[in-house]
Design brief:
This protein is α+β, with helices and mostly antiparallel strands. Among the domains are: 59-298, Beta-galactosidase, Chain A, domain 5 (Distorted Sandwich), CATH 2.70.98.50; 791-910, Sandwich (Jelly Rolls). The protein is built from 18 helices and 52 strands. The protein has a nine-stranded antiparallel sheet with strand order 5-10-11-12-13-20-17-16-15. A seven-stranded antiparallel sheet has the order 6-7-8-9-14-19-18, with no helix packed on it. Strand 34 (721-725) and strand 35 (731-735) form a beta hairpin. It is globular, with a radius of gyration of 28 Å. Pfam families: Glyco_hydro_95_cat (PF22124). It comes from Actinoallomurus bryophytorum.
Length: 911
């Protein structure tokens, strides 16, 4: 705290945050449907949903131009993404997943501008990210509309312009790249110079910029553009900028691509770019746009969730669910995964932390939800990163460990290299990553029933990971198989009996044995594997909870809750498990609750059936990490992990099938107003639908995709239920037991219903919604989605009243608002301000030397705000947001609660 200095960049971001303030922030309470109706369609085996209107209520809306790149809205076609903001017209950062070994070296800028400016001379404005159509539309009055869309699941995106103004004298589109001198971090790039070297073209076909053209790994790309519907000329502005000069027209489309060498014939990205643009131009805007919307419509119809309550907070969480699903999917269909730190979206230059490899811990958060949401093709993209490197991983395992088996580095490069792992004490002795990779491949088989994938891809990987553990485990003093020394992930180094290794064996060995029997392979190995499983050391405990490794507990090196990993992702315990109480105690005693952007505490809460904790966990993560109105975070440890965790929490709260038992609504909040509905995918190929309102579960609908046997946990306890085949209403079985198991036929719909209150007793309904038109907020947090029409007034910290325990440091050059800050080291120090308005935002920076404060409105406690953050100091941001106050005079009071630093930077008042 004593060495605080000026940070000019942070000061600019702080001012941008102030400019982007909102007043019309609303929390929309949903109109909850009647408890007497049901939306299940027995003919399709899914909920009846008007997806167009329902998803429109979750559109992200900016009602004023956004000039902050970090707030840019994200639009993509599955492979190429664009992050858009208002700067000299419309500016977008464009990137793709397959452009470079390091995701930082994979972006360029597209800037569309006109004279007079598109964003001048208007009275009404709205920018809308339509999730259902996958489209970003900006409207200025009724005579200008700019639509960003694309060619589906390709490298081509488009900007369609409808401009009815008669006074436009010029239109131009610039393509540019960031300063090549900033390119650094060469861990996975054989020749840095090729990424600092740009080439251009400008001719009758369009314009383009290329880099990485001599990359030895065949990465590199060309950012290129052309125009449909208007005449144009091409121009090279300089070595890193080219321009299309477009003849003004009332309607035209600019097509642009980030064409990768990796996916191009002969690895010629220039020829690929020209070909892609020529093809989409020949197809035409109307057909391409229709195909693009159909792509996204088909995507959404794979599944459905509704998570609602009367306060509106659940609606906000549901909104994040759909937004996060869209963002990841919009760049997740490349040959390489959507990277946790960048994805295909960012507003920074080529220097981005940790862009050179894939951390499994972080990537699993981004991808693991997509099996339950019935997007197994997205999960396959993640799995393919590991299966395609099977030979390289086996070779390295033999070199490093001297065994013919498979070890997977926690930090792995695009080609399976372990450079990011073996050079780090944090990761070099993590042995369990291969189990996670192998198990996710096995899950892909279990969700898709793809026996060919199991035989040719998943099982060989599983078998060799099991063989690695069989070679590394030794018998301890009690005669049990244990791991003598390894890392319990990144937090405990070189420790005995890591729970991650024991959980890996408990998780992977049984399914590998089962798969070998199914395939009729490796009978000679099964007895060894079974013997290890039967004689495995128990998890280490303190008598009531699991420990991360055999005690004494080693020095803590990171803030992972390692012992809870047994709950998720290793799936060895949960609701109804014999060790449930121990698992619950483990979760309750975890040392680092919600302590980082990748914290998966709430997923584990859902697995334990803790509905309130799962709900509050989602809210906590959003409160801490959803800093920007586009749904993204200011946290530089990762951008997309907390969003991926959010997806998994919601899925697991509504449906669980990890232990081959279908359990509906296992972890929903106790709030009596909560209403949940879903159509999700369960293990073994069951499309499951259910609805819960007023504390009542109405039915469980199953569409059997492959004809496997189904086991459903009776959601009504011991009430009598029956299983009815929907096609002919035949009763398959009746039972009052806690679980119902029945055979199914492929592509057949079944309904599990109470005998006393069958599905037929509910009236039929269709789920719809109304389009969102404004900002949404998460109550008692600073998290918002969207931008309002006007900005609010800002109050410098000097206007507050402070007690004697606060220090004023005006003029110390802190880079916050007006370079002023008031801070205190005293527990109980109080600052307050009286204002007239309907809302207030409290602004502060965050840093590692800071503590937490309590916030009161009109002397009523509101919330505790944690100002402490690990890593680099975070720029000034809204840390508390309050709206909906009655018009009039109110007082905000901020009370420091620790002897660490408490700060007030500024307040923003909503009239």
């Amino acid at each position: 705290m004593n060495t605080r200095g000026r940070h000019p960049i942070r000061y600019v971001l702080a001012l941008l945050a102030l400019v982007a303030g909102t007043v019309n922030v609303v929390a929309i309470a949903p109109a909850l449907a009647s408890t007497s109706d049901a939306a299940f369609d027995s003919s399709t085996g899914a909920l009846s949903v008007d997806y167009a209107s329902y998803l429109a209520k979750h559109d992200i809306v900016y009602n004023r131009p956004n000039t902050n790149p970090a707030y840019g809205l994200t639009v993509g076609n599955g492979r190429t993404g664009a992050m858009a903001w208002s700067q000299n017209g419309l500016t977008m950062q464009v990137s793709g997943a397959d452009l470079s070994e390091q995701s930082a070296y994979a972006a360029g800028l597209v800037n569309l501008y006109s004279n007079p400016g598109m964003d001048t001379g208007y009275s009404t404005y709205q920018q809308r990210l339509s999730l259902y159509d996958g489209v970003l539309t900006t409207k200025y009055d009724s005579n200008r509309t700019v639509t960003v869309m694309g060619s589906p699941n390709s490298e081509v995106m488009g900007i369609h312009v409808e401009d009815g103004r008669s006074n436009v004298s010029s239109v131009a589109l610039d393509l540019s790249l960031w300063d090549p001198s900033t390119v650094s971090n060469v861990a996975d790039v054989p020749d840095l110079n090729t990424w600092k070297t740009y080439s251009t073209f400008a001719d009758s076909s369009g314009v383009g910029l290329s880099r990485g053209q001599t990359d030895a790994n065949n990465f590199g790309y060309t950012l290129a553009a052309t125009v449909e519907g208007a005449n144009y000329t091409s121009q090279t502005v300089n070595g890193s900028k080219v321009r299309l000069n477009i003849t003004p027209s009332s309607s035209y489309t600019i097509w642009f691509t980030a064409a990768s060498r990796l996916n191009a014939s002969n690895h010629d990205s220039v020829a690929q770019a020209r070909s892609q643009l020529s093809s989409v131009k020949n197809t035409g805007y109307a057909t391409t746009f229709a195909n693009y919307k159909n792509f996204w419509h088909g995507f959404w119809q794979k599944s459905f969730v509704s998570y609602q309550n009367s306060s509106g907070d659940a609606d906000y969480m549901e909104n994040i669910y759909y937004l996060a699903t869209y963002m990841i999917a919009s760049g997740g269909y490349g040959n390489y995964p959507f990277h946790f730190i960048n994805g295909v979206y960012r507003s920074t230059g080529d220097q981005t932390k940790w862009s050179n490899a894939y951390w499994y811990w972080n990537q699993r958060d981004v991808y693991n939800s997509f099996l339950a949401s019935n997007h197994t093709d997205l999960m396959k993209t993640f799995n393919n990163l590991y299966s395609r490197n099977y030979a390289a991983l086996k070779s390295y395992t033999n070199t490093r460990y001297g065994v013919d088996a498979l070890w997977v580095p926690e930090t792995m490069g695009w080609d399976g290299n372990a450079r990011g792992t073996v050079g780090s004490d944090y990761t070099k002795n993590i042995l369990s990553t291969g189990t996670e990779a192998a198990f996710n491949m096995y899950l892909q088989y279990r969700y898709t029933n793809d026996a060919t994938y199991l035989r040719n891809t998943a099982y060989p990987f599983m078998r060799d990971v099991v063989r690695f553990y069989a070679a590394k485990l030794t018998k301890d003093g009690s005669g049990k198989y244990n791991m003598a020394s390894s890392n319990a992930h990144e937090t405990y180094w070189s420790v005995p009996g890591a729970i991650t290794d024991l959980a890996a064996v408990k998780s992977l060995f049984p399914v590998t044995i089962q798969a070998s029997q199914t395939l009729g392979l490796d009978a000679d190995l099964r007895s060894q594997w079974q013997s290890i499983l039967d004689n495995l050391a128990p998890y280490p405990t303190d008598g009531s909870a699991y420990l991360p490794h055999t005690p004494p507990i080693a020095q803590t090196r990171n803030d992972e809750n390692v012992a809870s990993e047994a709950i998720w992702p290793y799936n060895t315990t949960g609701i109804g498990a014999p060790d449930y109480q121990t698992a619950l105690n483990t979760w309750n005693k975890r040392p680092f609750p919600y302590d980082n952007v990748w914290a998966n505490d709430a997923i584990q809460a859902a697995r334990l059936g803790l509905g309130d904790q799962a709900y509050n966990g989602m809210k906590t993560m959003l409160q801490k990490y959803q800093n920007f109105p586009n749904g993204l975070t200011a946290n530089t440890n990762g951008v997309f992990e907390y969003l991926g965790v959010h997806l998994s929490v919601m899925n697991e709260s509504l449906l669980q099938s990890y232990n081959d038992k279908i359990r509906v609504f296992p972890a929903v909040p106790s709030d009596s107003s909560f209403a949940g509905k879903f159509t999700l995918l369960a293990k073994n190929g069951f499309q499951v639908s259910s609805e819960r309102e007023g504390g009542e579960i109405k039915y469980v609908g199953l569409k059997s995709l492959y004809g496997n046997s189904a086991t459903v946990v009776n959601p009504w306890g011991t009430q009598q239920v029956r299983v009815r085949r929907a096609s002919d209403n035949a009763i398959i079985t009746t039972s009052s037991s806690g679980e119902i198991t029945f055979s199914t036929a492929a592509n057949t719909v079944y309904v599990v219903e109470r005998t006393a209150k069958p599905l037929s007793s509910y009236s039929s309904t269709r789920l719809t919604g109304s389009a969102n038109q404004d900002v949404k907020s998460l109550k008692n947090t600073s998290s918002t989605l969207g931008l309002g029409k006007t900005t609010s007034g800002t109050v410098n910290d000097t206007a507050l009243t402070y007690d004697a325990n606060w220090f004023g440091s005006s003029g110390r050059g802190l880079g916050d608002f007006n370079d002023d800050v008031h801070y205190s080291y005293t527990n109980g120090a109080t600052a307050q301000y009286t204002f007239t308005g309907t809302g207030v935002d409290y602004l502060s920076e965050k840093n590692g030397d800071m503590g937490n404060v309590d916030v009161y409105i009109d002397n009523v406690f509101q919330t505790n705000v944690n100002l402490n953050v690990s890593g680099a100091r975070q720029s000034q941001q809204t840390v508390y947001h309050k709206t909906g106050l009655a018009a009039g005079t109110h007082t905000i009071k901020i009370v420091n609660k620790t002897t660490s630093v408490g700060i007030v930077d500024a307040l923003k008042i909503t009239p």
